[in-house]
Amino acid sequence: MGRIRVLSDNVANKIAAGEVVERPASVAKELLENSLDAGATEVRIDVESAGRRLLRIDDNGIGMLRDDALLAFERHATSKLSDVKDLLAIATLGFRGEALPSIASVSRLQLETRAQEEQTGTKVEIAGGKLLRCDELARTVGTTISVRDLFYNVPARKKFLRSDQTELSHIGSLVTHYSLAHPDKRFELYHEGRELLQVTPVATMKERAFQAFGAGTMEHLVELEKQAAELNVPVPYAASRNSDPDAEAAEPSRFCLEGLVSGPHIQKLNRNSIFLFVNGRLIRDKLLLHAISTAFHNLMPAGSYPFALLFLTCDASEVDVNVHPSKTEVRFRHGAFVHDFVRDSIRNTLTHQRPASSIPFPAQSPMPARYNESADREPISRPFIAQQAPNLPFSEFSRMLDAQPAVERPSELRWEQPSARAHTNGGLPEIRIPAVQPVAHGFESQPLFEPKPQPPAIRRVPDTHGTLHHLPPEWEMVDSLAALPDLRPLGQLHESFIIAAGRDGLWIIDQHVAHERILFEKVLRQRAAGTAELQQLLSPIVLDLTVGQHLEYERIREELDAGGFETEPFGQRSIAIKAAPAGLSTGAIEQVIFEILEIAEQEMRGASLDNIRRDIAATIACRAAIKVNNKLEPEKVEYLLKALAQCEFPMTCPHGRPIALRYNTKDILRSFHRI
Ligand code: ADP
Ligand code: MG
Fold first, then answer.
1. CATH code at 263?
2. Closest C-alpha to ligand 1, atom 16
3. What does the pLDDT look like over 168-203, one tens digit per residue?
4. Residue 162 near residue 408, CB atoms below 8 Å
5. pLDDT tens column, 634-667
6. Which of 99, 442, 568, 621 lies in disulfide reach of 520, CB 3.0 to 4.6 Å?
7. Does any ligand 1 atom lie closer than 6 A to the CB of residue 208?
């Protein structure tokens, strides 16, 4: 007898469960996706013991016919595919027919369901993959699936589960994010009877985000309004010769992107706060993650990541979702196009909306500096509302999606300007602004705001779920740099920072990074137009390079020269610099060249020409910009503010440091107890 035998279905299901069912949240994901595929408009999830003891999902979808209710637990039984051709354009979240049998093989599962076409419903009970009973049942149309005692028969898996808080947090994050993908549906999540999320149908994703995250978090995010792109796919050669009229009428492929992203002042240490949906499916995708990083290139320090929630929709045939058993990876047919579309949409949005950094200020509750010092999660009492900044809960689900075993780490929210954080003194908020030297002119003693006898009627924004929060419109533009063009300079602080009054508050601008940004954009503009300004050196500067530096030099020489240098090889490993970009002092020229070569060596191997060009511009700008500890004439201050306002991207310097902090009027009023 041969040694190979076919595995029993039960064993095969358990193997599949190993891939599909990692933890309670993965059960929730599969069941939630099934409910959405079944057209449910209301989904309620009840959890006990963070999903270990019970995870029950109840939907008002189309339900299952009696025969289907049993068939659904067979391996590869699905109503969503019938032909291999269907695999080329999958429009449903499920298609593998693996989830129900897999879950049923590692738990005690009960299914109650009824389809519209039948008068009675069906109840099926299965434990460890074995059918226990199947009865008739009276119930409404829809489906309820209860999964009890997950992994009761797989103790090894059970051991890998984390604390209740962590597991629950994963479930919470999952349901929250799916609810964002379906604002028109109702979602409820309860843990042992306590409501964790309850959102009613709304018209837009933004309104849903208000419901799920609260106004506090929304203040830190900018909306990426619907962006669309079309790709004209050439008619394949064979098809174009074919007389089939359908083949001739090749429609362009349409892509659409919307979502929310944080401004560059929210900097996270990893990608856990990036949530990507492709055609309503939550996924992890290297290509899209790369597009996001590229969009933030030169806006954030290397190794920092934003918060992003993006919904990409495209023709189902443009994306292959049959890549991984848990359906968390995709492959795009036109990857490069999608990449650039996502990158440019984010860049354009940031350029357009100019999100500003506010001075972190403990108005009512202290700023969560390190959200959680302990290894475990934030208390679940405020699970999905990040009050001051998008924080931990968003990061949960992605960790589940990452292939590596979950490593517990405290929150990684990092603010770029910790030293600017307001001090708390004996419980009283205090912001220290030392004496300001007045600028000789340009200061009119016009009041910042008209004092009102009564505080403005601000409806306090309760951080509760389920209701839509509205702020009075005058406070709504708090996170934009719209006020930049009409700032009034008040003076210079420590000969390093410009203090200015704006219509929305008090501004502090770092003079060095502001100038750096101005020069960076100027150098890039001139580079694009081929009009780099250069200065001829009286005598060439000769630099001796290492072998590695010389190789890099040869690789990027053309870019260097186009960027305003004139260089040529000089002997074996030396180069002679005959001209350099205007504005660089002789001493700085040498430094700039070495810095550029170092960046080229360390970071940019394989980097795109565009990034190299930007990094060269950033290095030149940094060296040529005015320094801190430098007294500025009023004219210079005015010039800086004006030029900054005209920048495409006045939020951060090319290395990602913030340029301007604003102490907004609302916080000023709050601090003086005027509201
Ligand atoms: P898949 O989703 O890949 O088809 P599953 O194992 O998740 O595979 O589900 C098997 C089948 O059971 C589905 O194709 C669907 O017909 C049916 N089904 C599962 N959940 C529901 C539900 N909540 N409502 C209606 N039908 C469902
Ligand atoms: Mg499914």
1. 3.30.230.10
2. 79
3. 988 998 999 899 999 999 999 999 999 999 999 999
4. yes
5. 999 999 999 999 998 888 888 888 898 888 888 8
6. 621
7. no
